[in-house]
Amino acid sequence: MTKQYNYRDDFEMVYLRHEYLSKIKYIDPAWIEHNKPIVNTTAIKMFNKLKPNFQVVGFDVEDLKSITNIYMVAYMGLYSLENNKKARDVFVRKYKTRTNQNPTQKDFVRAERNNLINFLRQRLQHCAKLCERKSRNIKVGREKRGIFAETEGSVPASHELIISEYKRLGYRKVTQKEFKEAKAQSRIDGLNEIVDKNGFKILEIQILSNGITIEDYALITQEHHNNIYYNNPECMMLDYEESVELESYRNKFNNLDIEGQIDKLYSFIYDHKGQPHYKGALKEARRKITELKKNKKS
Fold first, then answer.
1. Is residue 119, in this structure, part of any structural domain at all?
2. Residue 1, domain member (yes or no)
3. What is the per-residue pLDDT across 221-263, written as a single tens digit (0 to 9) for each?
4. Which ranges in the chain belong to alpha helices (H)?
5. Are residues 226 and 107 in the same domain?
């Protein structure tokens, strides 16, 4: 039975993506030197972007360069256009559909570079998420939250004490509903602090776990991290190519004058009129035409 690795007991095996490495049939030593600039640049940028997550488990930028090198080898061995016939065929088919001609060697090199960079970024984002999870096992303490209102008998105290002993210190708990209503009313009244119906100050307290920063919590709630461990790299790279292609079309459209943009939108409506799955896009195209015409008159 195949062992199921987890980040608690097999942290290294999980963040190094053991299932990639075990499938590689051949590793070309030349990959290391050829892709060194991409690996180093991507590692440095991602380390600076997600530094709190990496540092909390002891990783520095040199560690991340080594990890990124391993991800690069996995990409080249399994998913590159050079070694993955399926990925290459898909790229050729999409390119011919878009341009009505076969891709040149220069096109392959450009696509390979973009795919590799995107793959490395995705893997490093997931690595950062694993580091954040692992840090919860390393650091002691849990995040604490609470909303409390002062009373006539309140005693000044630290947030930590108020959370753990609010009754003894003369504070009362406030519900989310009451807090929202008080917050809205205080804004209407032009107050600089939130008060309850009796005029007593309301405290919204949040104490993070030891060693975990706001950035750590923000990272794991971002939508692009959802199920990232299970993303199919081939599909992921095709999605990236489509986003680049869309951005190219957007830039070409934005570079047209108003008349050109209107003509382009009318052509789109004519070509796709009556097609149900273009309903939303057609509606947006008509709205955009109206907006452009108003701008033209003004």
1. yes
2. no
3. 443 333 333 444 445 555 555 555 566 667 777 788 888 888 8
4. 11-15, 18-21, 30-34, 36-49, 51-55, 61-78, 85-99, 105-138, 159-165, 176-188, 214-219, 233-254, 258-272, 279-297
5. yes
Q: Which residues pair with 205 in a beta bridge?
A: 146
Q: Which of 165, 167, 139 is nearest to 153 (CA)?
A: 167
> 3-state DSSP call for residue 5?
coil
Residue 3 domain-assigned (yes or no): no
Contact 132, 216 (CB under 8 A): yes
Q: Which two three-digit tokens encode residue 215?
A: 């950035």
Residues 201, 252: Cα–Cα separation, whole Å: 55
Provide the 8-state DSSP code for 87.
H
What single letter denotes the amino acid at residue 139? K
254 HSE (CA, 13 A, CB side)? 6
The answer on pLDDT for 172 being more than 90 is yes
Which token pair is 218? Answer: 């923000």
Q: What type of residue sits at position 191?
A: L
